[in-house]
Design goal:
Elements: H1 2-17, E1 27-37, E2 44-51, E3 69-76, H2 79-86, E4 93-95, E5 101-105, H3 106-109, H4 114-123, E6 132-136, H5 140-146, H6 155-169, H7 177-186, E7 191-197, E8 226-234, E9 237-242, H8 244-253, E10 261-267, E11 275-282, E12 287-293, E13 298-313, H9 324-353, H10 371-377, H11 379-383, E14 388-399, H12 409-412
Parallel strand pairs: 1-4, 1-5, 5-6, 6-7, 13-14
Antiparallel strand pairs: 1-2, 2-3, 7-8, 8-9, 10-11, 11-13, 12-13
């Protein structure tokens, strides 16, 4: 009898756990949420991109046409009440736990209302902390409606593949919600959000493929959406934009970023009219040595970045691999180019931003006995802007691939 009672009790607990269960086919899964400002103070426009799970799958049946998603916009004071409002006319229950991206307009990101509206995302358990924050040049609703991927019908797969690949190349940052609150509430560093747009304002191509922000990349055909560069946030407000190249440097110098390799072009030192295509990968994390003088409230930061380069293309056809002097010239030119670009970015961060996008404040905190002492030192206004910073790139190895030599142009065109 005792065994039967325990079994019955176990079954009872199992049934109680299923009491609030909702069937999958009765739920609407939101893939992207967009937030825009309105003419009314405290009222925002929330745009929901709801995925159709049957689109592009065999469940839809052969020959059946299914729209991949549905987009709706409602108005509210915060994301949760707006979601509840949307549930009043959406047939299935709206679920936010599968949301991949949170898209905010640049107008909202540059206002002091951005941090206020973001607070609701931290309080609810329905939104994952891994959701990526995207800043769109235009209204977020326009970005979602204009985005039309050609090769991927499922919107959740589009965002997953697109952001993963862009982060691998280093042209956008890893901008999840958890990192935003971690950096913003720490009040010491700059948060980098993903910058994107569907508007096209091309910039003249000068040979480098990453000196753009979204919307400036010269292109023809395909989806109008571009992901390139980052939006710079200080104390919860967007203050500037970084190009794809500057974002790559931030990813390289930030030890918390997982950037293994990236493709990049560098000017050919012996033929400046050409570019050398390379695959750059870090052999180890950057080594940051920070010394702090408590009496002067002054820091000296020395950073060493070991990396390797694989040569992918040399359009000038100069035989760098066969000539040690040429090889040394190319090695020095790559190191110098990256060093100059890094020094320029650090100078801008110290003088214009007065804070760093590299998350270097984690190295100075051990020099303070407690949080009040650390806050009194003031990394934002005093320590970082006046710090002496040296970044040393060490090119450990230069690979030339399977071909040691390029085509001899004088022999081909005799």
């Amino acid at each position: 009898m005792k065994t039967i009672s325990l079994s019955g009790l176990l079954i009872l607990f199992i049934l109680i756990g299923c009491e609030d269960m909702v069937e999958v086919d009765r739920q609407s899964y939101v893939i992207a949420v967009g937030i825009d400002v309105t003419d009314q103070d405290g009222i925002y426009a929330f745009t929901y991109q709801i995925a159709n799970p049957e689109a592009g799958s065999t469940l839809a049946g052969i020959g059946a046409e299914q729209i991949p998603d549905e987009t709706i916009t409602v108005f509210g004071t915060d994301i949760m009440t707006a979601t509840n409002t949307a549930n009043s006319f959406v047939t299935k229950q709206i679920i936010l736990d599968q949301t991949r991206v949170l898209i905010v307009s640049e107008a909202l990101a540059r206002s002091d209302q951005f941090l206020r509206i973001m607070q609701s995302t931290a309080r609810t358990t329905e939104i994952r902390r891994s959701i990526q924050i995207i800043v769109s040049k235009e209204n977020a609703s326009d970005f979602i409606n204009n985005n039309s991927p050609v090769l991927e019908q499922r919107p959740h797969k589009y965002y997953q593949y697109m952001l993963s690949r862009a982060k691998e190349t280093g042209i956008i940052p890893d901008a999840d919600l958890h990192r935003f609150f971690q950096i913003t509430e720490g009040d010491a560093d700059l948060f980098l959000g993903i910058y994107a747009t569907t508007t096209y304002d091309p910039k003249e191509l000068d040979g480098s493929e990453d000196e753009f922000v979204a919307g400036q990349v010269p292109k023809e055909g395909g989806n109008v959406t571009q992901f390139m560069g980052s939006a710079v946030f200080k104390e919860g407000i967007m203050i500037d934009r970084l190009t794809g190249e500057e974002t790559r440097i931030c990813n390289i110098l930030d030890k918390t970023m997982n950037i293994n390799e990236m493709l990049a072009n560098y000017p050919d030192p012996l033929a400046p009219e050409y570019q050398v295509a390379t695959d750059v990968f870090q052999t180890d994390n950057p080594k940051v040595n920070l010394n702090y003088d408590s009496e002067m409230n002054h820091a000296t930061i020395d950073v060493t970045v070991p990396f390797e380069v694989k040569i992918l293309a040399i359009p000038s056809l100069i035989h760098y691999s066969q000539n040690e002097d040429f090889k040394r010239t190319l090695r020095d030119a790559i190191e110098q180019y990256i060093t100059d670009a890094t020094d320029e970015l650090i100078k801008k961060s110290q003088e214009a931003y007065r804070s760093d996008p590299f998350y270097w404040s984690i190295y100075i905190r051990r020099h303070f006995k407690d949080i009040p002492a650390y806050e009194e030192g003031d990394w934002h206004k005093n320590i970082y802007p006046n710090a002496d910073i040296t970044v040393n790139y060490q090119l450990k190895r230069l690979h030339f691939g399977k071909m040691l030599d390029d085509t001899k142009l004088d022999e081909v065109r005799d």
